[in-house]
Amino acid sequence: MNESSQSVLSILTGQSWFWDPMQSNEIRLNPDEQCFERIRDWSHIVQEPNPGSYIPPGRHINEALLTEKAFEPKAFTLRLERGSFLTQHDRTGDIYGDDHLEMGLRLTFDRSPYPQPDEWREMTSSLQAHKMWEWNEFCCLQLPDKGFLSAAWATLTYLMMKCQENNMVSNQKQSQ
Prior knowledge:
Layout: H1 3-13, E1 17-18, E2 26-30, E3 35-39, E4 78-85, H2 88-92, E5 103-109, H3 125-130, E6 137-142, H4 148-175
Antiparallel strand pairs: 1-2, 2-3, 4-5, 5-6
């Protein structure tokens, strides 16, 4: 694995990713098992054993509510972006005034990592209301409030992206 791939992997796996600003719906990517786990939400399932998990081995929360298909390994296409983002929760829900957090990184799945409607044994009113199978964007790295620090962060982020692009171009030229 080259250095830039290793850097991206460390960004993806180095912290939790949140669907909402309250940080109550969280996923973590696990580099060793090549999988992720959903933690701290009521539909939690663990797709692979994870030694760092607080879930006992072989135990799946809400296992009785999900079909076998929900536990099958899945592949996803991910997009990682750096900038200033609202969580998907804040963009799709009601926001009152400035009562939201801006996040510095956004991870977008090609489809939701949560169980799809056909992976639930019964479609409850709670599932219909939450529609977790539509949740495909997760954020991390809370940005400072507006003002000098926010402007400095935006400038630093831009410069870091430019340096990273230059390093990638330089590495491609060296490999040719």
